[in-house]
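Reproducibility note. Readers wishing to regenerate the assembly model reported in the main text can use the exact inputs given here. Chain order matters: entities are listed in the order in which they were concatenated for prediction.
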Amino acid sequence: MLFSNTRVVRIDWGDCDPAGIIFYPRYFEIFDDSTSALFERALGLTKIEMLKTYNFSGFPLVHTQARFMQPTRFGDDVTVESKINFGHRSFEIDHRLSLKGVTCVECAEKRVWVVRQPNGRLKSHPVPEEVLRKFRVI
Amino acid sequence: MLFSNTRVVRIDWGDCDPAGIIFYPRYFEIFDDSTSALFERALGLTKIEMLKTYNFSGFPLVHTQARFMQPTRFGDDVTVESKINFGHRSFEIDHRLSLKGVTCVECAEKRVWVVRQPNGRLKSHPVPEEVLRKFRVI
Amino acid sequence: MLFSNTRVVRIDWGDCDPAGIIFYPRYFEIFDDSTSALFERALGLTKIEMLKTYNFSGFPLVHTQARFMQPTRFGDDVTVESKINFGHRSFEIDHRLSLKGVTCVECAEKRVWVVRQPNGRLKSHPVPEEVLRKFRVI
Amino acid sequence: MLFSNTRVVRIDWGDCDPAGIIFYPRYFEIFDDSTSALFERALGLTKIEMLKTYNFSGFPLVHTQARFMQPTRFGDDVTVESKINFGHRSFEIDHRLSLKGVTCVECAEKRVWVVRQPNGRLKSHPVPEEVLRKFRVI
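Running the prediction on these inputs yields the following structure tokens for the assembly.
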């Protein structure tokens, strides 16, 4: 089971640092949004609707790694292609960020599906079958 | 002389705080991007191209005020309408951010056109006539 | 009733933009933190402890205005002095951000004390008498 | 040659997301600042002074990986311990972020020393001997 989504993101002035290139933590904001966009496309729900529909608390990151090959600059419209691969209580997403066909950043993240317990703590939980089904259909 | 631009912006998960609503400094990032988008539309140049073409260093803010009437949440696609009004070395921009027709935030900012002097300091400078002309034409 | 707090904040590389000066939305992050720091000092509680102790949902901004007089740069250790003035369901905070005694930014914000209603919406609520008392004592 | 620095960082309200825990890209802002702080301590120069003194353009990231073991929340004062290990044109930094002695995040980053060429592009360059010497002395 593998599903992907592609979107275009503008790098803005305020994303860049005094060297004139993107400040790299902004890439992780872009990847986090790209993960949400992937789910939104598969499920037909925004993240706020997802949280209510499936009664969970998000999918926090447990591991990420990224390789930065080419810098990007304000005014660049970059393409982010994101692919998901589900485990039982977790999933992996690969993001490839490119500019005019040239790969600038590659990122691999692992996230867990969590629910809030009665004591307020977050705990991992199997990804609901209904969620998996929607990804399969597409 | 008055010119406006409208764009749609998605409020993302990472823009929001533990109360579940947007963390208000994110609005100012949106407004800064909206100001750049207005110039990009009028001049047909991205900001990085503008800086080279007109040999200036940006248009830093000297004053801003904002009224927050309704909160917005992740998943909201808000509309930002931005109107510009030029002075000699400065300009004013009014931003109206709305959701489904309801105004959520109103912001009025004043910015100055600056160039970098030989000593490295930024100094205000008249907005180039060519820039003003492009706004007039539209 | 007026109470103030002063703290020192480092302007970091990632706070600055390609012009080499601070990207102004970062100032509002600094001011938001300064408001929390003022409450923390008066109440002896961090914000997360405050939310539990007084059973409210935060103090969202309803209005802010700021004047930017001098830019700041990465490596600058700026001083933020914050003064509060309470109303019934709201309060005003004035922030003055300075570098080596020179005022760089002045900001005036108005916030409301809100609680979450059974339907999940946020609603304004009188600032608890106990909170006011702690500010008076100091 | 190995040198370390430790600092304490407050997790703020605006660093956290609707799940009430830190939005993970904020960790990378903290690690970037921690890298600067390490250099500042070794060289006795802020980053802006370093850029002038050694005539370079920064040390952009080429690779990072992070493991997130425990979430942190607003009000947490976390400790970041950063250790550096120099190569020829690059260096590696390990960051360990902990709360009350418990490791929350481990991050390993690789960065390159870059200078701006006459054509405006950034290019890797050997870390100056004087910089290495200052780290050795400490």
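We highlight two features of this model. Residues 3-137 of chain D form a domain with the Thiol Ester Dehydrase; Chain A fold (CATH 3.10.129.10). Chain D has one domain: 3-137.
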